[in-house]
C-alpha cells in the first residue's frame, strides 16, 4: 500500500510504501480513500522542511481533505455501514476535554495529515465513527471540498454569533461581505456566504476577465481587483463591509481590507503562513481603527462537527443551484502517481487539485 509523505529536511513529497492496516477493532472503522484534495497547508508543510511526524516515525503521511468509503466496521459500530461515503474530521483531542475540539490549546490535540498523526493519502486507514461525517451520494463528486469549506463555515458562524451577541439577534440579516483571495478558501468563502443569502464580493489580483474572476461571478459574487480598492471607501458606512473573510494570509492584504470594515465590523483570518516574514507595516492604524469602530478580529482554524454539517448541506445547496459553476472549482483531477508536482506549486488560474484513487 502506498502513501504520499513529507520528510524532515526535504521540500519534496515522496511516494512511500506502508503496511495495510489490520482489521477494525471494537468501535473502529476501516475506510478506503476515494479522493484527496491538495491544500496550501500541504505545500507549507513541505516548504517548512519540518513536518510534525508521529512519535517513532520518520515521515508524515499527507492528506487531510478526503472523501472515503467505509470498507468494514468493528463490533459495536452502528452509526455507519460498509458502502457508506464519509469525510473525516482532522483534529483529534489527546485525552478528554470538555470544549470543542477545534478550540483546544496547542499540545492537546493531533491533526491527521498535519501534525503528529498520519493523514489519508494511503489507500486504507482506520478511524472511529465520531470523527466521520456521512456523505449523501448525490454530492459525492464535490464532497472532497467539505473540509476546507467547513473551516470557512466556522468563520462565518462565529462572526454571526458574536455580532448578534453584541448587536442583537436581528442584526446581520444580510451582512455585506468581502472575501480576499482567489484560492480554494476564497471560493469556499463565496459558497458559505451565498448559501446564507449574504451579499459577497471577491477581491483579487486577477483582471476581471480571467477564469477565476469570472467563476466568482458565476457563483453569485461580485468581483473587484485589489488595485481598484487602493483609494479606500468614500463613505465607510455606505460603501464598507460588515464582514471581511481574509483568505490570503498576506499581512498587506489584511491591512488593506481592514480599511473597508464598517463600524462594528468583523474580520476573520482564514489564511496564514508557517514561515512568517518580518515586515514593517502600519499595524498601529489597524489597532486605532479597530478600537474606534468596535471591530472584531477572529482567528479561525479547523472546524467543529456543526461546521462539517453546514458544509455538506451547503455543497448540496450549491450543487442544486449552480452545478456547473461548482464543478469548475475542481480545476484538475489527477492520479496519486502523477500528483507530486501539484504538492509543490499551483497552476496558473488553478483552484482545487484533487487526487482520484482508482
Automatic annotation (TrEMBL):
Needed co-factor(s): Zn(2+)
Keywords (A to Z) from UniProt: Metal-binding, Oxidoreductase, Zinc
Report the coiled-coil segments.
Answer: none
Molecular function per GO: metal ion binding; oxidoreductase activity
The segment(s) forming the Alcohol dehydrogenase-like N-terminal domain are 26-87
Q: Which domain of life is it from?
A: Bacteria
- Pinpoint the Glucose dehydrogenase C-terminal domain residues: 140-355
Q: Would the keyword Repeat turn up in this protein's UniProt record?
A: no
Instruction: Please give the Gene3D superfamilies that the UniProt record associates with this protein.
Output: Medium-chain alcohol dehydrogenases, catalytic domain (3.90.180.10), NAD(P)-binding Rossmann-like Domain (3.40.50.720)
Q: Which Pfam families match?
A: ADH_N (PF08240), Glu_dehyd_C (PF16912)
Q: What is this protein called?
A: Alcohol dehydrogenase GroES domain protein
Please tell me the species this chain comes from: Pirellula staleyi (strain ATCC 27377 / DSM 6068 / ICPB 4128)
Amino acid at each position: 500500500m502506498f502513501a504520499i509523505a513529507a520528510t524532515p529536511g526535504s521540500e519534496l513529497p515522496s511516494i512511500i510504501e506502508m503496511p495495510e492496516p489490520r482489521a477494525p477493532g471494537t468501535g473502529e472503522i476501516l475506510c478506503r480513500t476515494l479522493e484527496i484534495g491538495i491544500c496550501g497547508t500541504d505545500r507549507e508543510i513541505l516548504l517548512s522542511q519540518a513536518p510534525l511526524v508521529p512519535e517513532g516515525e520518520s515521515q508524515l503521511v499527507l492528506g487531510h481533505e478526503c472523501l472515503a468509503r467505509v470498507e468494514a466496521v468493528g463490533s459495536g459500530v452502528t452509526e455507519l455501514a460498509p458502502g457508506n461515503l464519509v469525510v473525516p474530521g482532522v483534529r483529534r483531542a489527546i485525552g478528554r476535554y470538555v470544549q470543542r475540539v477545534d478550540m483546544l490549546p496547542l499540545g492537546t490535540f493531533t491533526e491527521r495529515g498535519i501534525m503528529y498523526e498520519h493523514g489519508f493519502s494511503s489507500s486504507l486507514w482506520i478511524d472511529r465513527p465520531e470523527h466521520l461525517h456521512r456523505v449523501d451520494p448525490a454530492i459525492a463528486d464535490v464532497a472532497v471540498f467539505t473540509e476546507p469549506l467547513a473551516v470557512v463555515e466556522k468563520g462565518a458562524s462565529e462572526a454571526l454569533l458574536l455580532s448578534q451577541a453584541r448587536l442583537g439577534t436581528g442584526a446581520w440579516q444580510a451582512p455585506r461581505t468581502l472575501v480576499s483571495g482567489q484560492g480554494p478558501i476564497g471560493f469556499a468563502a463565496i459558497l458559505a456566504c451565498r448559501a446564507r443569502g449574504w451579499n459577497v464580493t471577491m477581491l483579487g489580483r486577477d483582471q476581471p476577465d480571467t477564469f477565476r474572476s469570472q467563476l466568482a461571478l458565476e457563483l453569485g459574487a461580485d468581483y473587484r481587483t485589489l488595485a481598484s480598492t487602493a483609494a479606500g471607501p468614500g463613505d465607510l458606512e455606505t460603501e464598507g463591509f460588515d464582514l471581511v473573510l481574509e483568505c490570503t494570509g498576506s499581512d498587506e492584504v489584511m491591512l488593506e481590507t481592514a480599511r473597508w470594515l464598517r463600524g462594528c465590523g468583523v474580520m476573520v483570518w482564514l489564511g496564514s503562513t508557517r514561515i512568517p516574514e518580518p515586515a514593517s507595516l502600519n499595524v498601529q492604524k489597524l489597532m486605532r481603527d479597530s478600537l474606534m469602530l468596535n471591530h472584531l478580529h477572529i482567528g479561525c482554524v479547523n472546524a467543529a462537527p456543526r461546521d462539517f454539517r453546514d458544509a455538506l448541506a451547503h455543497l448540496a445547496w450549491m450543487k442544486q443551484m449552480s452545478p456547473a459553476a461548482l464543478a469548475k472549482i475542481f480545476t484538475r483531477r489527477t492520479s496519486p502517481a502523477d500528483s507530486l508536482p501539484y504538492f509543490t506549486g499551483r497552476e496558473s488560474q488553478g483552484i482545487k487539485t484533487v487526487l482520484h484513487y482508482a
